[in-house]
Amino acid sequence: MFKASSLPLLAGRRFPRSVITFAVWAYLRFNLSLRRAEDLLAERGVVVSNETIGVWIARFGLQFTARIRRDRPRPADKWHLDEIVVRICGVIPRMWRAVDAE
Fold this sequence. Notes:
By secondary structure, the chain is α+β, with helices and mostly antiparallel strands. Helices cover 45% and strands 14% of the residues. The protein contains three helices and two strands, in the order αααββ. The protein has a two-stranded antiparallel sheet with strand order 1-2. Strand 1 (79-85) and strand 2 (94-100) form a beta hairpin. Helix 1 crosses helix 2 (34-43). The two termini are 23 Å apart.
């Protein structure tokens, strides 16, 4: 997750930076609906409407998305191709899987 102190645009809000950061991060990272993000915060004792979370997404979403993508590990240069052959009811399907070197 992000360090909330590194986001200067969150200053002067009604909710603490940690709440806004968690709500936007969870919505973007796990592809939640606004209502599910609202429920996630309610389970932690924070009462926020889904409209408020939507405003946070509109205002801070691009900034958070850039940080999520930046911190995501990059794929390696080498890939391995695995082939799996399994007999299922007399039929032999071939399954292929591309695996990163790491």
